[in-house]
Amino acid sequence: MNKRSIRNVDFAGKTVLVRVDFNVPTRDGVISDDTRIRAAIPTLNLLSNGGAKVVICSHFGRPDGQIVEEMRLQPIRKRLSEILKTTVHYAGGPTGTQPAKIISQLGTGDFALLENLRFEPGEEQNDDVFSQYLASLADCFVNDAFGAAHRAHASTTGVAKHVPAYAGLLMEREITMLSRSLEGSTKATVAIIGGAKVADKIQVLHHLSKKVDTILIGGGMVAAFYVAQNNPGGATVITEADRLAAVDVLNAGGAKVVLPSDVITATKFSKGSTPSLRESKNVADDEIILDIGPGSCKKYAQVISRAKRIIWNGPMGVFEWPAFANGSIAVANAVAANSKSTSVVGGGSTAEVIGSLNLENQITHVSTGGGASLEFLEGKTLPGVAALDDAID
Ligand code: AMP
């Protein structure tokens, strides 16, 4: 990584502002998955153990620049205190005079959490006054919010102009692992790309077609690829733009693009629909493609078993519904079973598939960033990474 890491920096006596991504999923106000909180713990502990006063900040939800009571960070602060086994003080804010007062009372190694950054309109506007305010709270800045690195906001880019800015351990690992998945020879690198729409994945398909050996296609975009090959795509509406996008990928040269030879369809887009197995050329006009079929699962598993590097973004079908989850489960098991490969999984729902099968430990890296990991794989520069200080040597 060519950015300055927090490793080997002396933080003793320093006040450090740490941007994390605590935008955790909740149900009825209760945190349903605290993976993102746990992912930031190594950085928070390194800073605290190194003698810093640690001021943590994050966004949560979309309050759109106003105070929204249900989007306060109180439940997150409570969970973070439990995980860290110490009190995380409430710092107030995210603007005004209260944060500086509370921070001045922190002892060495103490933690405080600012209120939801997106209560302040300047955050998403990347307003320089708010950036300077955030910088005024600390001696230096650490960004560990990989999941927000594709956004140019005050707390991800603006603040880095005003104080020394380092990459946290999670940020460092994300960048290192994602970069490694794309570096060097394309040989024996397999990308598996699924998800809802071809429009969402077209850029990543283009970029990866120059970087990998084989691309296995799944998800809602299968219909667009079938139409691009003059086969029926079923009832899914395929715009001319979608068809052309798929044609472009097929004609791009570079990677071999593999489509499913069979699919699971249904006549209604609903959980209880009766699934039907169809060969690729036999999808009826009133059927929607909702998963890849068993023949494709077998073929994809074979390709995956021979890969040295694997990149996976996007489920193979509507995995949230058991009748259409088999393709994603088969691919997840195949990726996990190839223990000799370096496997990198990105995207929120793909990580969910891995998590639901408890396969995290058999994957080299499961990214915590959905949009950010996708933009990285599209070959884009992430503003939150670009804003950090360059590595010294
Ligand atoms: P993405 O965030 O682009 O990776 O898309 C994830 C979503 O794609 C999941 O919620 C899946 O249910 C959905 N998805 C996967 N396959 C299909 C399909 N064949 N038709 C519609 N949605 C799908």
What's the quaternary structure here?
single chain
Could you name the ranges where pLDDT drops below 50 across 5 or more consecutive residues?
Answer: none
Principal-axes geometry comes out as elongated
Strand order of the largest sheet: 5-6-4-1-7-8
What does the main sheet amount to?
6 strands, parallel
Radius of gyration: 23 Å
Helix count, DSSP H or I runs of 4 or more residues: 14
Number of DSSP E strands: 17
Q: End-to-end span in angstroms?
A: 11 Å
Helical content stands at 25-40%
Structural class: alpha/beta
| Mean of all residue-level pLDDT scores | 96
Bound molecules: adenosine monophosphate
Strand fraction: 15-25%
Give a quick set of tags describing it.
14 helices; six-stranded parallel β-sheet; 34% helix; elongated; alpha/beta; binds adenosine monophosphate; 393 residues; 17 strands
Q: What do these coordinates show?
A:
Helix 11 links the parallel strand 15 (309-313) and strand 16. This protein has a 6-stranded parallel β-sheet with strand order 5-6-4-1-7-8, with helices on both faces. Helix 1 packs across helix 2, helix 7 runs parallel beside helix 9 and helix 8 packs across helix 9. The protein is built from 14 helices and 17 strands. By secondary structure, the protein is α/β, with parallel strands linked by helices. The model has no long low-confidence stretch (mean pLDDT 96). The protein is elongated. Bound molecules: adenosine monophosphate.
